[in-house]
Design a protein that fits this description.
It is built from 25 helices and 28 strands. Helix 16 (373-418) crosses helix 18. Strand 23 (636-638) and strand 24 (641-643) form a beta hairpin. By secondary structure, the chain is of the alpha/beta class.
Amino acid sequence: MDNIYSKNDYDWIKELLEYPQTLEARLDFFEDTSGIDIPDDPLDKVIFQGRAKEAIRKIAQNKGHMLMVGRPGTGKSMLADMFHLVLDKSLGDFLRPTKAIVAYPGTDNNHIRFAYEEPDIVDNLLAKMHKAIEKIQNSALKFSLSEQIRSVGRVKKWLLWITGISVAAGFFFPPAFIATGLTGIGAIFMFMQENNHKAQEKIQQQADASGKNRVKHLQDMVPEVLYDPRKDNGLMSRVSEPDARKMKGGFKHDPYQSGNLQTPAHKRAYLGAHAKSPIIYIDELKTLVKSGYMSDLLEIMQNKEFILEGGLNSGSGAADRSENSLKADNIIIACCNHDTLNYLQKEGDGAFLSRIEDRGEIVQLESAVPEDENSIRQLAQYIKQEIINLGKELKETWTGVIEKEGYEGVKKRSEYIFGKPLPEGYRLHEREFSKKAVMEIIKELRCRSSDKKISSILRPVNGIIKTAEFEAILDNSRLVRAEHVRRALEKHLSLEGAIHKEILEHKKDLKKYISSMTDSIGYVVGLAVITSGTSGQVYGQPLPMHCQITVGGSDTVVSPGKTGEIAKAAAKNVRASIKKAFNKIQSPYIGYEMHVEYIQVHGGVEGDSASVAMDIALISDYIRQPVNQKYGVTGSLTGDIILAVGGVTEKVRSIMDPDLGMEGACIPWQNKHDIEPLLINVDSEYIQNDEIPGIRIYRDSEKHNPFDIFFCKTKYNAYRVMMELEQGEVEAKMAERSKKDFEFMMNMKNAREANQA
């Protein structure tokens, strides 16, 4: 076979080895992060998202809306905060409300009216009204039953006198005792009646001690200040779960609706974000869609006003409403993911998106940015910003302990927290990152992306930076070094990362068992990835496969288990590639049933990146040639050509653990730049397997434990590495096997015809 690699191809692979030096040269503007300056412009503190920042500057000029679309962790919340800060410093004095919103009683008990008033005027008006009501309250007559008490008291006294006289007369005229009994009973009754009047008077006086009940009808007419701009200076309101109550407002339920205890509607009204906040930030638009508030939002964005109505669906507030409208000229800043954007494009023919574009812009946030001098500088700046933030957090937490107990107290308390002795001279303060440590962060972000790009999903990296800081603090190191970052990466795993780690341990044992129990014919180590739903990070893992070809079958590909549509299509594509090889060598194709098994992949397989591995395993079984189990392989097969696939960096990195026993990998030629981050802070060199170029990475210091990566253009390049066979040798073995199969089938046919005769 002619060599398909040119001199330029070999030079390009050799140039990959220069990447670590090129990266270090791009970082020559600092020795450690103490030499990095933080920009004053708040928007420049958000890195990578250049288009979004330009959109914010334009929108800030015309008070427009903005919808940011991107994956979690790309900086949507930070951009919203910076947008708020830019507007506050530039137009805050003009955007900030200056008038109070006052609610007045309406035409009946269920209606209210709103007015926008100067706060000082409202204060004076309310002071005058309260003073007048207090005067009326104080001038009102005090409740009294003194007249009734005096009348009963006089009758009681007369009855007591008559009782005394009748007692004296009874000694001389006994029938007079009858009068004594009657008048005594009457006196007792009058005594009880007098006490009853006094108790009733006291109860009424205590119940109306301040005279409020007598002036309640006047107090119910006093207007209520629902919003005072002097007490709420914030321009932006964050709404996490938008609905009518949070966005528009409503009326509270009144549990006392009778007995002169009811609260009028205008005193039960409350306002939402539309009426109070010039800027409304909706962190996740999906929650707004789920709450069913989209139609109301569209109407308010169009009319810039709304009627306040109702509270809960039942209760006293359900029938309440305002007679006039509230102003709602809000700037809407919203964020969503791509699935929500797809829904919005269909919902109402994209009405919400149309309103956003009418006064603003829909911005796509980058999940990855090209690696260049500008992006490298921005990333170094970002690390510095996180170091400063950690320093502030440590100061806020430990300042009190330092002032009272000094650093010795901090050391003792930290030893209790970490459960181990800490080095002498231990100081709990932030450390600067060395240049090598910054390169490790760049390496990680390059591994999480592809196509020579740096991942801009930075939220998970914040935790890695902080964990590396604490690793350096625990070592009492002057700087955060590369090994601290590597330790942090081992500890800082997402949920999927932890699961991946457990799966990888299982894969180690599985691979060792398969290698010891088989002849390696039809077996191949493919490479796959799982994706974190929270961070978006991909985690590579080995994918053991076993394939068989059975002669005289139904000419199909059988792939049991949860195989996705793309994976099934890839299997059919492999079958077509093998049939093409038979045509090329002019061998009869008599029909083969091909079996593809993904060993212990219970969660299913999707994608076409295992098609090269599938082809190698099928050909291995067909020509009875063992496959090198110490090499992994990935790539998408189209005819004879191997095309690029995703997640190559993580796939290769997943089998570089020496405990797994792997010695190398075959990857598509087009994915050559995905190997660059693996060369950072390690020794490496150029190698070649016949005409196939590759790079050898040493996993240990002093050039120990090599790992070889070969860049394949066609499946025959992969055959050379994985089965140590040239194209001609493979085709010859295929022709020989095909001839035997054809003879076998003809003999079977002749025997069948002879039996029938």
